[in-house]
């Protein structure tokens, strides 16, 4: 069985990324290990009194993101592909690479967003960083087209 790590960010490109990952998993008899990396500073805000931390904002955001992950997982499973998911907070590249190692991933499937810079227009900055740092293949699905 092929182990596929699928980082998701809940952006507009998530639908295309999910479709491509499911097709790839079907073609390779794969299992998807979906991960969402939330920023460490979700509950922080800057105001007149400087930085303030609002734990209820962070808790609500994490709950919402877990609901979204559960919904995506159910959609993948409904299409006949085994899937599990994880939500972590921190630096995305490092966490994704650690998760891929932990799951003995054969591939990381990433989307290209087409945001900034010539290379980033076609690939995306996190995707670019992962392709440079990963010891396993990174399959890039164009999501901006």
UniProtKB/TrEMBL annotation:
Domain UspA: 2-142
Oxidoreductase is among the record's keywords: no
Record SUPFAM superfamilies: Adenine nucleotide alpha hydrolases-like
InterPro entries the record matches: Rossmann-like_a/b/a_fold, Universal_stress_UspA, UspA
CDD domains: USP-like
Subcellular localization(s) per the UniProt record: Cytoplasm
Taxonomic superkingdom: Bacteria
Family membership: Belongs to the universal stress protein A family.
PANTHER family attached to this UniProt entry: STRESS RESPONSE PROTEIN NHAX (PTHR46268), UNIVERSAL STRESS PROTEIN UP12 (PTHR46268:SF6)
Name used for this protein in its record: Universal stress protein
Provenance organism: Chryseobacterium taklimakanense
């Amino acid at each position: 069985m092929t182990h596929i790590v699928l980082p998701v960010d809940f952006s507009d490109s998530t639908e295309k990324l999910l479709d491509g990952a499911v097709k790839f998993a079907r073609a390779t008899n794969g299992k998807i290990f979906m991960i969402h990396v939330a920023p460490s500073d979700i509950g922080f805000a800057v105001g007149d009194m400087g930085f303030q931390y609002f734990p209820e904002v962070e808790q609500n955001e994490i709950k919402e993101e877990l609901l979204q992950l559960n919904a995506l997982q159910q959609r993948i499973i409904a299409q006949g592909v085994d899937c599990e998911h994880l939500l972590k907070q921190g630096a995305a590249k490092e966490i994704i690479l650690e998760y891929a190692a932990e799951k003995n991933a054969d591939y990381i499937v990433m989307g290209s967003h087409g945001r900034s810079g010539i290379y980033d227009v076609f690939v995306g900055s996190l995707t670019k960083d992962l392709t440079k740092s990963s010891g396993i293949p990174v399959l890039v699905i164009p999501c901006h087209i």
